[in-house]
Amino acid sequence: MSRKHDNSAILLIHCPDQKGLVIAVTEFIFKNGGNILHLDQHVDEQQSVFFMRVQWDLETFAIPNDRISEYFETLVASRFDMHFQIHFSGEKPRMALFVSKLPHCFYDLLARYESGELEVEIPVIVSNHDDMRPVAERLGIDYHRIEITKDNKLEQEQKQMELLARHNIDFVVLARYMQILSEQFIDAYPQRIINIHHSFLPAFPGARPYHSAYQRGVKIIGATSHYVTTELDAGPIIEQDVSRVSHEDSVEDMVRKGRDLEKIVLARAVWNHLHRNVLVYDNRTVVFG
Amino acid sequence: MSRKHDNSAILLIHCPDQKGLVIAVTEFIFKNGGNILHLDQHVDEQQSVFFMRVQWDLETFAIPNDRISEYFETLVASRFDMHFQIHFSGEKPRMALFVSKLPHCFYDLLARYESGELEVEIPVIVSNHDDMRPVAERLGIDYHRIEITKDNKLEQEQKQMELLARHNIDFVVLARYMQILSEQFIDAYPQRIINIHHSFLPAFPGARPYHSAYQRGVKIIGATSHYVTTELDAGPIIEQDVSRVSHEDSVEDMVRKGRDLEKIVLARAVWNHLHRNVLVYDNRTVVFG
Amino acid sequence: MSRKHDNSAILLIHCPDQKGLVIAVTEFIFKNGGNILHLDQHVDEQQSVFFMRVQWDLETFAIPNDRISEYFETLVASRFDMHFQIHFSGEKPRMALFVSKLPHCFYDLLARYESGELEVEIPVIVSNHDDMRPVAERLGIDYHRIEITKDNKLEQEQKQMELLARHNIDFVVLARYMQILSEQFIDAYPQRIINIHHSFLPAFPGARPYHSAYQRGVKIIGATSHYVTTELDAGPIIEQDVSRVSHEDSVEDMVRKGRDLEKIVLARAVWNHLHRNVLVYDNRTVVFG
Amino acid sequence: MSRKHDNSAILLIHCPDQKGLVIAVTEFIFKNGGNILHLDQHVDEQQSVFFMRVQWDLETFAIPNDRISEYFETLVASRFDMHFQIHFSGEKPRMALFVSKLPHCFYDLLARYESGELEVEIPVIVSNHDDMRPVAERLGIDYHRIEITKDNKLEQEQKQMELLARHNIDFVVLARYMQILSEQFIDAYPQRIINIHHSFLPAFPGARPYHSAYQRGVKIIGATSHYVTTELDAGPIIEQDVSRVSHEDSVEDMVRKGRDLEKIVLARAVWNHLHRNVLVYDNRTVVFG
Asked: For residue C169, what is the DSSP state?
């Protein structure tokens, strides 16, 4: 759905399911002069958890932006044991792009960035190679080659993290970045590192999934975008898509068809992340919208 | 989503969009002791129309079932110029099945009926042929052959409508019924006649769509389930799906592949209709869930 | 493609790739007065294996049907180290249907059988339960309940195999038959037992795949039809298809959506098997058509 | 399938169906020392037309490349009333890219070009605007702004065609080029102008298809790539794909989702055109591979 509103707030909630949740939240907004633009709600009945995403117009809202969080905590959240985040439509999240040598996801995201499709700032690109430097320079984006070897990983990651801090990075996108991040890095950006894996997870995790897909003789290949957790390729899935293949497709054909899947799936995940559509719970995602 | 609740109410609403709609509805439910199980809401921003589907547990609800409609009208709907329907999860809608000679959608719906997948009563089957009589008899469903010719259409439809009235039919499913219904019939069941058309509408309306699809050389064929209106194949679309074809597919192959599409698409439309997920506005549908 | 020809032969070949294969086969057909109706050819370049399916009209073919195999062996196959099978369009393969209690694939296949969509004979149905007996009786198909326990498996399978032998069964379809076949059974019907598994293999093999899919939070579910081998759910895949799910789908919803996938995927696999479109090599399939 | 062979010939044929076609062609190749790498054949049974694409290794082929066409005409084609084309894998076709202001297909094709995914030369870009000039300059591609108005169309197209001639252009890709080409232009490049239309043709031809799709309430949108003919949006379809939408999708959302479809569908069409997989007959395409 279209959700562009110059001056609106987005509230993401999860908490144990119980009576009166919807009314409590909508009352908070309505009584203070907010007009609800979108409301999505979901109950996981198996686990009895309540999820909500609500967006409202701030035009005539009585509580100043920088106090909404405090007021909501006091008046609503504390009563229901809620976890919540508040975002404002005016804020552009700041994203770092990590890339190695494969250009397709990288080019695709930058074309969307250039054309204004993604409402995001990309102040910095990090790579273990120099291949993508010219593209970054053309767009005026800071490009840092930080080579990673078995021996220097932790200290090089330290440099990466300083860079992210310096650029006030909100989240990281791994656009076919061929390095496995360490636990320290991952823990610093919980649910804020988006990866694209070139298989239909949980099938074919790890290296060379197209080769494995070919070997197994599957009739459909896929791509999966997920938040990175410390267990490899096992983080909460944001988006997946698939493409039909046949015996006529060599590994090379799968790689080619897969590139388009990877581009689309990663871009959708980033779009949903940017629109604050994604809630994570119990290693699964609720993706509203 | 799963929505089986032995004792719940479902409220479907549409009205001009304005402030305070969500709060008004949820307050009505909450203040009277209802627990909201599902809430879906949608605003058509182009037309400024608000849509809502809300389902709540009646276990501890203060208003008796047969008064909810009146109370809601008085306390909420009248203030906001709302159109609304109330349904109860315990009620099984009564469906009439119309069929000609093509058996695939017919068999498929009856298999779902027999296996309990569809929570519906099917007391009567109507056909212009005798082919399906044995199946109906086996299942103990009343079967009526009512032959339609150019000359007797209106009077034969009269018989059909009396039959539907006698069986207290709520809605009609045309499972590849090869007759065009008259205006009088259609007007008697507004948004309550579901048809399956064997093309991706609005492409290829009318007769022989697979032949037309073959002729045009499309690479994808489709099926469309819609509510019947007086304009042929132009009613509000409930569900569509598609299947890839190639130059290798003859018209006969398209017919074969299309059969599976038709079955699935019609069954999904019926399922959504039964679960009260469908709202019609301006010849389009909102399908929640 | 449509391949109904009252009097044609179908030749399936695989052999090491080398020069002159296509010409050798087409010459054999042409020089003896056959008219090629369809020719599909595939080379697995990674393994250097050649595959072919060719169908020709027998109307004016010089070699009598019962000698074609011998002539082809002598004149062509032996020169190129070919594995081949010859089938005739007039022959209806004989299929045994194995089922437990879940009816959807069973009903679906029988509806296709009844309506003439599948050119096959189904002389016998085998089950470890009595639930489906009435359907079998209605269609005049021999129904055998053969209960399987941990203790009697081999001797009960012996009965099943005698039954198959008595009915001259060509291939077996497991329409959600909930028993694991023993090695002796599987070895007796190599590439002639078709199973439907309710996941997108190799993801979620074994029991309760929808529960696992829900747990993992996938955004797409699938179904896989494959030839049964002695390694569970690891046989050559004939067909797969998928359906999108979301956080709104409970396990029960996945089961419901999955039923439609299973029906379609199994039916397509059976259809391709019947049309002699499937060649197995190195635990993968070539599916022509 | 993978078809990269440094030194191979590709022969595309269509002719009235008759006995002996496959053998005649394969014999021509085999007897002259060629090794068949791929052979695809198709018979349109409704129209009794035979289609073939065959690729063979030229390594040990006896006939020199520049005489193959003449020899084939004399020895085979003339006997069977064949239309044929011969291409060589070593030749890189020369493509002109036409664009207006919408960048997504343009960027996508150029990214594929830059990364070597498309084996093509793009010597010239033509636009009625200046927006894309920087991208062209960065890649060293000749960029020509040729403004088109109602009054100057034919003379401006004359300039375009001179440009194409000067650059030895083989085929033209309209990457969301918002002008309708005149008959004279189209006739000069029969089956050599590829367009992307942002709907599932034949639904919603002409202007503003996403608005029409929204209005009609379809549940699936599509994109279609086709060869341009003088009838608007009615040329032979090369590729189509679709994407699911719902009531939640505004026109703007459809435009966004459609962009990804358009990119993928156009790229696949160009890829198939480049690999000589496409044959046109009776305003439909045979797409091998």
From this structure: -
- Whether the pLDDT of residue D3 is over 70: the answer is no
Average pLDDT, integer, range A255-268? 97
Closest residue of chain B to D218, computed from CA coordinates: B237
Asked if D250 lies within 8 A of A138 by C-beta distance, the reply is: no
The residue assigned the tokens 């329409």 is C175
Task: Collect all residues with Cβ–Cβ distance below 8 Å to A262 and sequence separation of at least 6.
Answer: A104, A105, A176, A196, A198, A223
- Give me the residue from B217, B242, B247 closest to D220, CB to CB: B242
B1 inside 8 A of chain C by CB: yes
Phi-psi region of D48 (alpha: psi -120 to 50; beta: other; left: phi over 0): left
* 3-state SS record for chain B: CCCCCCCEEEEEEEEECCCCHHHHHHHHHHHCCCEEEEEEEEEECCCCEEEEEEEEECCCCCCCHHHHHHHHHHHHHHHHCCEEEEEECCCCCEEEEEECCCCHHHHHHHHHHHCCCCCCEEEEEEECCCCCHHHHHHCCCEEEECCCCCCCHHHHHHHHHHHHHHCCCCEEEECCCCCCCCHHHHHHCCCCEEEEECCCCCCCCCCCHHHHHHHHCCCEEEEEEEECCCCCCCCCEEEEEEEECCCCCCHHHHHHHHHHHHHHHHHHHHHHHHCCCEEEECCEEEECC
Q: How far apart are CA D141 and CA D163, in angstroms?
A: 13
Which of chain D's residues have a Cβ under 8 Å away from the Cβ of A260? 264, 267
Question: Cβ–Cβ of D37/C23 closer than 8 Å?
Answer: no
C4 and chain D in contact, CB less than 8 A:
no
Strands in D237-244's sheet, in edge-to-edge order, are D142-145, D121-127, D94-99, D171-174, D193-197, D220-227, D237-244
C-alpha–C-alpha distance, residues C266 and C67, integer Å:
34
Across the interface, whether the CB atoms of D107 and A111 are under 8 A apart is answered yes
Catalytic residue chosen out of the listed positions D233, D241, D249, D282: D233
How many H-runs (helices) and E-runs (strands) does chain A carry? 9, 13
Name the more confident of B68 and B289: B68
Q: How far is D241 from chain B (nearest CA, A)?
A: 7
pLDDT digits 0-9 by tens, C123-167:
999 999 999 999 899 899 999 999 999 899 999 999 999 999 999
Catalytic residue (choose from C57, C108, C170, C233): C233
What are the tokens at D155?
A: 């003379």
**Per-residue pLDDT at C276:** 96
Task: Please give the residue of chain B at the shortest CA–CA distance from A42.
Answer: B38
Superfamily (CATH H level) for A94-287: Formyl transferase, N-terminal domain (3.40.50.170)
- In CATH, the number for domain B8-88 is 3.30.70.260
Parse chain B into domains and list their residue ranges. Answer: 8-88, 94-287
**With contact defined as beta carbons under 8 Å apart, do A122 and A141 qualify?**
yes
pLDDT computed for residue B46 by the predictor = 85
**pLDDT the model gives residue D2:** 47
Confidence bin at A45 (pLDDT 50/70/90): confident
Q: Whole-angstrom Cα distance, residue B112 to residue D55?
A: 50
pLDDT at A90: 86
Residue B105 confidence (pLDDT) above 70: yes
How close is the nearest chain C Cα to the Cα of A222, in Å? 10
Hey, are the CB atoms on D23 and C19 less than 8 Å from each other? no
Inter-chain contact C1–B253, Cβ cutoff 8 Å?
Answer: yes
Active site residue A233: yes
Q: How far is CA A115 from the centre of its chain?
A: 20
Which of these is catalytic: B108, B170, B233, B249?
Answer: B233
